[in-house]
Amino acid sequence: MPSPAPTELLPRPAESAADATVLTQNQGGADTTPSRAGRPAALAPGQELDVGVVLKDRFVLKEKLGQGGMGAVFKALDLRKVEADDREPFVALKVLNQDFLDNPLFFIALQREAKRAQSLSHPNIVTVYDFDRDGAYVFMTMEYLQGRPLDSLIRDLPAVGMPFKKAWPLIQAMADALAYAHRKHIVHSDFKPGNVFITSQNEAKVLDFGIATAIPHPGKDTDATVFNARDLGAMTPAYASLEQLREQPPDPRDDLYALACVAYELLSGKHPFGRLSAEQALALHVPLQAIAGLSRPQWKALRRGLAFKRDERIGSVAEFLKLLQPRSKLFYGAWGAGLLAAATLGAVYLIRPAAPPTPPAPPPPTLVELSPEQQRKVDDLLELAAIHFDAGYFTEPAGSNALWAYREALGIDPRNAKARDGIKKIADAEEQAAWASYETGDRAQSLKNIQEGLEADPGHPGLLKLKSKLEN
């Protein structure tokens, strides 16, 4: 199915407000107000829409920008803006297909949904101006954008996709738009690259909120409208959640699945399941390929966003965004504070005796069976500890380091072998760093590494041996 037409809001490079000048200047040049006689003819009964037609005696269709399942999109000149000398007199005008007008309640439903779309005032959501009709034609007006659709941008990406640093602002903007709509109790239900527009200022704008999926629900109160993208033919299977495909009630986590698909596509250059629907990918057990360059927490967040079952997905778009955000936002501030503290410690260590080693921990208590929730928390802590270790955050910064995460895991599961081995690994790494500093003559740094290693394992023989060597 072709992408809904609103995504094709691409102007011709030569076009500008110059079109308005033709309509506002008369031969004498004195009066710039357009006259009734100078306007194109209004829409005649039964007339087909084409360039030059005027809707509502106001919108002059200047160019057909695209055609999709829901209707056609035109670039239109707004004569009211011309009269007001608006420097941006163009709008995008989407005219719905005639097939959708067979149900007399459909116009009421769409008008109700248009009001919802108008309530979405957000910098990353296309602005909807109005919803109206002229004879048999029902149309929506919205801001006219210059740039390109996201699906076009993705097609031009290299095989490895877009670097995370470049893709992150786009992912963040799309997620912010969806999260805002969800707070307004609106589910997009057809989120995909074709419904995202990247402006010439590299800003992401999400399109078609609440319009492409609005329809009166059969057998229900006719005053109520619900989302039913499948019945309208507006749903795109490659980005639809399993629940949408099975016609379950809409949920914000449907949009989350679609957002995760789009994020994966940006970062890898390809759809996570080869453009198969969630139902097909689940039946065929299609494996999800990891994306190089993502940290383990980021990859875990993306993987959970792509979970086929709604209950296994992350709870909200906002939470998904928080887990996927760059580690610099999560750690670098605390890491810098830790480095400052470490530098201070190294400077004063020679004139302040080291604190005595922490006494050995008491024997672990009797083994207890963990609940599923406790086990998940332990697994998350172990994964976080591994990330900290790989980044070199052994014992600093406070509250966000490998030693802290391993100890938190032991607090839940005192006999966890991975946590105990991880702590020993920290002490071993500090011993190696201490010896390296000692051999280069950097006693202060060597003593610092010894102190940090003994914090992890007070009885570590190699650290105690080097400590004694330095003190003698």
Task: Give a description of the structure.
- There is one protein chain.
- By secondary structure, the protein is an alpha+beta fold.
- It has 3 domains: 5-143, Phosphorylase Kinase, domain 1 (2-Layer Sandwich), CATH 3.30.200; 147-324, Transferase(Phosphotransferase) domain 1 (Transferase(Phosphotransferase), domain 1, Orthogonal Bundle); 360-471, no CATH class.
- It is built from 17 helices and 11 strands.
- It has helices at 18-24, 79-83, 106-118, 150-155, 164-183, 229-232, 242-245, 252-268, 278-284, 296-305, 317-324, 327-348, 372-391, 402-412, 417-439, 443-456, 461-471; strands at 54-55, 59-67, 71-78, 90-96, 128-134, 137-143, 147-149, 196-199, 204-206, 214-216, 225-227.
- The strands form 3 sheets. A 6-stranded antiparallel sheet has the order 1-2-3-4-6-5.
- It starts with 17 loop residues before the first helix and ends with a helix.
Short description:
With 472 residues, this protein is α+β, with helices and mostly antiparallel strands. The chain is 43% helix and 12% strand. Strand 8 and strand 9 form a beta hairpin.
Number of helices: 17
> What's the end-to-end separation, in Å?
79 Å
In total, how many domains does the architecture comprise? 3
Which percent bin holds the helix content? 40-55%
- Which fold name is given in CATH as the topology of the largest domain? Transferase(Phosphotransferase), domain 1
Broad CATH class of the largest domain: Mainly Alpha
The CATH homologous superfamily of the largest domain is called: Transferase(Phosphotransferase) domain 1
The percentage of residues in β strands lies in: 5-15%
Order of helices and strands, N to C? HEEEHEHEEEHHEEEEHHHHHHHHHHHH
Structural class: alpha+beta
The strand order across the widest sheet is 1-2-3-4-6-5
Shape: elongated
Q: What's the CATH architecture name of the largest domain? A: Orthogonal Bundle
**Average residue-wise pLDDT:** 78
| SS elements, strand count | 11
